Amino acid sequence: MYKRWLGGISGISAAKKIALEEQVGGAKEIYYMNKSKLEKIKFLTQNECEILEQYQKKNPKEEQEKQIEKGISFVSFRQEEYPSRLRNIYQAPYGLFYRGRLPEKDKCAVAIVGARVCSEYGRNVAKQIGYVLGKMEVELISGMAAGIDGAAQWGALRAQGKTYGILGCGVDVCYPKQNQDLYERIPQSGGIISEYCPKTTPRPIFFPNRNRIISGMADIVLIVEARKKSGSLITADFALEQGKEIYAVPGRVGDKLSEGTNRLIQQGAGIFTSVQEMLQNVKKLTVQDGNAAKKTGKTLEKLERLVYSCVDLTPRSLETLMENTGLPLGELITILNTLREMGCISEVYKNYFVRTEIEV
Fold first, then answer.
1. Are residues 316 and 185 in the same domain?
2. Degrees (nearest 5) of the Cα angle 15, 18, 24?
3. At residue 52, does pLDDT exceed 60?
């Protein structure tokens, strides 16, 4: 109860909360400290003492009960359940609020991040990598952001895998709003996690802080698409500081969404070619499904295979597909509809189609 109270205090760093708890004996003791005792703590500023005084007016039991009613749990730095990968990172969070569950300590974990405004190619790559990781029972860490993050997490969920969304706001705040369905689905098998107190609204300064937790919880960090100046590159920087393996999906020369990933590769990041290759040095990995990377798992008829082979990860128009397959319009549309129903392709905008499955 008191640890949850201390974890919810904003304006005091995690390092100071940990040090303060060690010095005075625990979070309960901090809650009951009077002003004169607080002011004797050498590393606390006057402003921080005032912040603690304000938070001492709150009822920890009442706050805890409200959070529990919302399905919000809390774990502090000193508790055994605290994610072990986070303990030794720079500026480790004092505690984590979460809905659902925390990552398993003995499972391999991969973080996937990338551009919010991504290409259809990047979206499909992220989704399928997430799917393969889910099939292999590798846990997926991401930021539940629009674009690459959300696509990867949907892929993991589709494979009935576990994924964890690390937020730059309270766990009871869905951000971005467009990911409401994802926000509701993730806790059913994984978790929504944040170091920020419930009801905290998203602010730009919170997201770089959030990124250190994304990389900190993972064994490997994979960047799918990123511009030259991108929040995903901040995650890569944290991963480098934390000694994590970094991989990037290479992109086309001159493509703005590939500038960041190509630069990472130039600087020494691993080139992503397949999930299996990326994971081969992670000793914790146990491959549960050797056929996880097969692109559809469905049997296609001859003409369906023909049409499927002509659809790419970049949008192909109906006219282009007619030209490449030599099929009449009516028959081609029938086959495209069948492939859509099977989940092999999708129509990204009117009469333009892309694959939704790739071998990774």
1. no
2. 135
3. yes
* 215-225 residue pLDDT tens: 999 999 999 99
Q: How far apart are CA 232 and CA 116, in angstroms?
A: 10
How many structural domains are present in the chain? 3
At 357 the pLDDT is: 61
Is-contact 49 34, C-beta < 8 A?
no
Domain that holds residue 217: 109-279
Residues 215 and 350 in one domain: no
Q: Is residue 335 part of a domain?
A: yes
Which of 187-191, 282-286, 300-304, 350-354 is predicted least confidently?
282-286
Q: Considering the domain boundaries, does residue 258 fall inside one?
A: yes
Judge whether residue 278 has pLDDT over 80.
yes
Q: Which CATH number covers residue 308?
A: 1.10.10.10
By the 8 A CB rule, do 262 and 253 touch? Answer: yes
Render pLDDT for 135-172 as a digit per residue (tens, 0 to 9).
Answer: 999 999 999 999 999 999 999 999 999 999 999 999 99
Q: Which two tokens stand for residue 81?
A: 């359940």
Query: Could you tell me the pTM of the whole model?
Result: 0.82
CATH code (residue 269): 3.40.50.450
Within a domain: 99: no
- Assess contact for 49 and 39: CB atoms under 8 A: yes
Which of these three, 21, 51, 69, is where a domain ends? 69
Among the residues of the chain, which ranges form H helices?
2-7, 14-24, 27-31, 35-38, 46-55, 60-69, 120-135, 148-158, 180-185, 206-216, 231-241, 259-266, 275-279, 302-310, 318-325, 329-341
Please give the Cα distance from 70 to 213 (Å, whole number): 23
